[in-house]
Each structure stands twice: as C-alpha cells, then as structure tokens.
Amino acid sequence: MKSRILSRIFTTDHRQLGILYLCLALAAAIVGTVLSLMMRIHRVWPNMMVPGVGLVKPENYLAMVTMHGTLMVFFVLLIAPQAGFANLVLPEQIGARRMAFPRINAASFWISVVAFLVLISGAHIKGGSAISGWSSYPPLSALPAAGPGQGLGMDLWLISIGIFCVASWLSAVNMLATILGERRAGMTWSRLPMTVWGWLVTSILSLLIFAVLLAAAVLLFSDRHFGSSFFIPVGDMIDGRVVGHGDGSPLLWLHLFWFFGHPGTYLAVLPGMGLATSLFANFTRRRVAGYRVMAGGLVAIGGLGLLVWGHHMFVSGMNPWAGTAFALTTMAIAVPSTIEVIGWLATLWGGGFRLKTPMLFALGFLSFFIVGGLSGPILAQPALDAYLHNTFFVVAHFHMVMGLAGVFTVFAGVYYWFPLMTGRMMNETLGKLHFWISLIGAYGTFFPMYFAGLAGEPRHYDRLAGPATSFPSLVPLERGITYSAGLLAGAQLLFLWNVFVSARRGMVAEPNPWQASTLEWANGAAYGRIESGPYEYELPAGAEGFHPQWEPAAKEE
Amino acid sequence: MPATFTRNPVEIERKDPGTGGKPPLDRRPTGGGGEGDNWGDHPEGHHGPRELLIRYRLGVIFALAGDLMFFVALVSAFFVRQSTGHFDVHDNFINDWRPLAVPTILWLNTAVLLLSGVTMELARRHLFREVDVMDEWLGLGRPAVKRAAPWLAATLVLGLAFLAGQWIAWEQLVHEGYRFMSNDPSSHFFYLITGIHGLHLIFGIFALIGALIGLFTLKKVEYRQVAVDCTAWYWHTMSLFWVFLFVLLEFFQ
Predict the structure, then answer these.
(1) Model pTM score
(2) For residues A154 and A63, what is the distance between their CA atoms, to the nearest angstrom?
(3) In this predicted model, what pLDDT tens digit does every residue of A75-107 receive, in sequence order?
(4) Fewer Cβ neighbours under 10 Å: the N or C end of chain A?
(5) How far off is chain B from A301, nearest CA to CA, in Å?
(6) ipTM of model
(7) Domain with A305 in it
(8) Inter-residue contact B234 to B207 (CB < 8 Å)
(9) What does B161-181 look like in DSSP terms, one character per residue?
(10) Of A97, A180, A234, which has the smallest distance from its Cβ to B86's Cβ?
(11) Does A233 touch chain B (CB under 8 A)?
(12) Residue A551 included in any domain
C-alpha cells in the first residue's frame, strides 16, 4: 500500500510528469505575477503600503525585480514549453511508448521542485532575497556586504540556480536520447512534427549552456565564501572600505552568464515556435509551407543563438570590435527568424481558418513575435544600444518576445492538449474572452514601454522621482501601464477558473477534437510503420478530410 | 506508381494493415515479433540486439557533452583570469597571476590514471567477447564476468590511487603555502580544477563499485554490458579531460 502511494507520487509516467511540470510552472507564474503587480503598483504609487510587505523600500523593489525575473525565466519559461509539454506529448509524437530514461525524467522534475523551494525560501529569511537581478552581476552579487539580501539570500539564489542546472541537464539528456533513439520505424527527420524539432534544438542547446551557468555559479560561490577573486576587481570599495583581494573581472561573469542567458531565451521560444507551426497547420487545414526550411530555421536560430551573447554587453566596457562581431551575428539571427515568420504567414495565407482558442493564442503569439522581434535589430546596433541599454525599451522587447509570445504559446498548448490531459475540453467562450482581454492587456502593458525607453527611462529604478526632469512626464504612461497590467493579470483568473472547472466538469472530448494529424491524437489506435508526414491536411484532388500520420499511406492511385 | 493492371474491387476495399502482407500477429503460427514487426508494442530492449546498449550509450554521451561544457567554461575562465589586470596610477598594467609550479606527483598520477584507462578497457572488452556473452545469455555460467571483474577491480584500485595522489599533491601545496583560501588566483584555479575533476572521479569510483556489484547481481547479460560499458565511457572521458587539464596546468600558466 505504501509503495503504491509513493509510486503514484514519484511517478515515472511521462504524461503525469508533464502535468506536474505544468503545475510547477503555474505556481511559479502565480508568484511571479503577484510580484510584478507589486512592482507596478509601487512605481505609480510609491507610498502605498503593499499587502504583505508594507512600505516598499528600494531594496524590496530590487528583490521583487530579481525574484520576478528568476521565477518567470527559469521556472516558467524554461520549464513549461520544454519539460512540461514535451513530457506530455513527445513520446507519442514520435511513435514511442515512453521516454528513454523515465526515472531520470522523474528525478529531473523533483530536483526542479527542490530548486524552486530553495529559491522561494530566500524571501523568508533574515535579509530577504537577493537583489542583484536575475542576471546577478558581480561585484554586487559577489560581496555579501554589498546590500540587504546579498548574504544568505544570494547564496540561496545561487544554490537554487545550481540545482536547476542539474535538473535541466538531466532532462535534456533524456529528451535527446528519446528523440534520437526512440523514434518509430518510418519516423524520419522530415516526418517529425515541428514541435519535436523545437524540442530537439532546445535539448541540444540545454546540454551546452546549463553547464556553463553552473560553472559560473560555482565560481561566484567560491568568490563569496572561499576568498577567491574570479569576479571581484581590485580596489572595490563598500562603505569606504576596500573589499575583495584580487584582480578579478566582473566582465568574466557577464561572458559566462550571457553565454547561458542568450540561448536560454531561445530555449523559451523555440518549442513554442514549433507548436505555432503545428497549430497553424491544424487550424487552417493546410500543409506547412516549406517544412524543411522551417525546421532548418529552428536549427539556425538555435545555432546562431550560441554566437550572439555579447549583445547584452555592448556597454559593458568590452572590446568594441567584439561588439561589432556580436552585432553582426545578432543581426544575422534576424534572418532565420524572419524566415520562420514568413513561413507562418505562408501557411496561414488562404487557409480555412478555424478560430478556436488554441489558434487564437497562436495568432497572438505571431503578433507578439513580430512586434517584439522587430525591436531586436534596433537593439542589435551598438550605437543605438548605447542609449537604449538598460532602459524600458529592452524591457518591452524581451517581455514581448519571451513573456508574451512565449507565454501565449504555453496557453495555446494548454488549451490544445487539455483533452489529452483530462479527457475534457476547456470552455471555448471563456477561452476566447481570456484571449482577447489578455491580448489587449498585454499590448497595453508592454507597448508603451517602448516609448518610455526611448524617453530614457531606466530599468531597475524603483521610482521616477529624482533630478531628471523628463521622468515626471512619464508618470501618466506608467499609470496606464499599471492599469493594463492589472487587466492582464485579472484575465488570467479567467484562465485558472477555466482550467480547474473544465478539468472536472468540462465537456467530454471526442477522440480527436481538433481533427489533428499528429500522432499524439491517435487515441490508442494500433499502428505500425509511419508512412506519411505530420501535416497531411490537404488531400490530393481536393478530397475532403485529412490523412492522420498514424494511418498507413494511401495505396490507391 | 503506374498500374499494369486495374485492381479487383475486392482488393481495393481490403484495408492494408501495415504488416507487409503477413497475417496479423495474433494469427501467426510462430508468434511473429521479429525485425520490423509490431513496432509499437515491444517490451524494452527488443527493437534489436543492441537497442538497450545504444540507448544507454546515447544517454552517457549526451551527459558527458554537458559535462564537457562545464569544463570548457572553467578553462575559459582560467585563460581570462590569467590575463586580467588593472591599470595603476602610472598607467602600468598590473596583473596578479603568479604561475603555480605544479607538484611533480601529478605526473605519476597521470600515469596511474592512464593505466586505469587500460585496465578499464580490458574489462569492457571482456564483457563483449562473443563466445562468453553467448554462454552467459544461454545461462551457462558467467565466464565474461569472471574475466572482467578482476580488471574492473584493478581500475577501481588505480582510481583510488589517483585520488590519493591528488590529495598528496594538495598537501604538498598547502605545505608550500598555497592554500585555497589564499589570495593567489593560480592556486585557486589549481584547487578548483583538480578538485572538480577529482569530484567527477569520485562519481566514477561509485560507478565502478556499482558496476562491480552489478556484474554479480544483475540478471541479464545485456544489463551487465550496459553497466560496464557506460562506466567505461565515463571513465575514459574523465581520463581524457584530465590529460587536457593537466597539460593546461603544467604548460599554459
């Protein structure tokens, strides 16, 4: 009896693990959203008492910024699109029965949970959580005396991130071994659903980058506790006293962190891009335009993504020629991204639109990807970035492409695969309402930030008062952003209601409710060798219906 | 595909079940289940004779790829730190890297580790000798295990000797005044690099012990092969990393 309960909690079934991962991401997203609302309220009404915190001091604000970024990037965007959805459907999508290493998969989940708990515990200790931002630059992050929360809070942050790196590494090993080794006979590379291509590139990137972050975290921990000076420069002073004892380089941290951090952002969006391709094909009943080019685009984005990290460091004091090199690679990455967008538009053009909720969210993703992505080449120019670095322009850019585009693909995935998770459909009306309010709230929150950034408003400042006179004129803009943020957050309550009520009392789903052609919808049909592509929505000679991937290829002439 | 004759309506209506013209599995006299049959429903390890081994090797190799990136990060930090400095008031570039003289016992340790690689490979190959594997598979004793186990034990002993040698090197450095907590970046890196490598080797020791136990307790010869083979891949990789790290510490300061 006891071992049955334990084996149900520590399950190795990948679908249940996928649901568990999505629950973890949801928990992190709720905390992260609450933090962001507290930040927005404080920016506009600085003297308001925030429930649970009281008067928000500048260091509290910075702690909120740090925790918001860390939770949202690591525990939402680096979990839900990859481990969450891949565990849900990857084995089925390639015709396998289960993952290559189910127990490593399960271990990876529980290790992620430990990382989450360690991170959250930072808020409850004396001194509070770290305040050095999600990118944790030294020397602020390397010296416990540098600020409140930089003692034990920073240590907990580092330990949490280190544990998360181990979990991601294990998860990537499992996913790669599954995709490379467990595909069914006939499931060739050009018959893979685009989501699997996304997970393939993501897994390879994960393998390469999380180890570098772990190394950086180890070095930073050593600087903090073992008297080394990898990152602390000589003569660094706190309160008039010299701290640090060697000739370290904060720039070294930036290189190591952003070597992880930039491909990390692609980890957040690549699976969603693959999902968007799948959804566009499914809901327009068209084949994917230029399948090989689209898959190649995902690989190119992943590969080039490893070469662009310096664009976070244009103003860091690194060699300007290096800046030029990184600017070139960054602008180069706009090419495969544009190819992806054109591919999506080509798939959509002239298709018979079925505007169900997953499709709406995929279209929303496309709009955010374009709007946010277009600001990328602007930031890629060192000359422009010299002005725009660390302003709200950057905040708008990454929230659009990662926060909004990425999260909309997570929503799309949840609505799409809900019948697989629970056997029921989510409420379509509530879904559409959730979409439209979120879309309006999202644009209302993040689009004006471009203008705030162009006006020079800096990041990480807890309020706009001060000697600069242009900022008071931004307060109405900030107020509008705060109201929109409240609307956006409120719309998510609709989503949560929909998820939890539909799971119990939603309409029972028919076997293949979206008439999809990919293998996860085979619903237990026994099938042998794979003989057709994943998106055969257009039958020859305009025949009705579609050709699911689990059915053998048509033999008639 | 051009048709040379029109098909009989009966043939067109019959749906192709995808079994290649053979009857369905439950109507086969010998049960079917060979190459290319019933792909979805095999218990693990039956896609082919080496499916399990290939899967585990893939896993180990991917895990080691990630680990390689960890060492790459440390090595690049090493090079950056070597050349980091600052400008003093007279605009002189001051760099505080004092190259550390690596204790000579490290040469002996390297030799011991390479020797352990040889014994590991001998152990691994014994577990793949076709005649012995066939005997084990048929249940006629465990000749492969009997041949491989001593070599595996030898690898374990040599690995422990390497770790002991590393510890002696550390003691020597402390004796000379280079502690980890001192202000010297090159000694920091020495301890860091040898320490991280040593930690990985300790994991390898546990893997060796696990493989040794598994040789005698695992029920199937395929599982025993996987245990030793994956340990061997890991061990060889750590030896290779050590060679690079040792060359780095010895010649690139």
Answers:
(1) 0.91
(2) 10
(3) 999 999 999 999 999 999 999 988 999 999 999
(4) N
(5) 20
(6) 0.90
(7) 12-235+242-536
(8) yes
(9) HHHHHHHHHHHHHHHHT--TT
(10) A234
(11) yes
(12) no
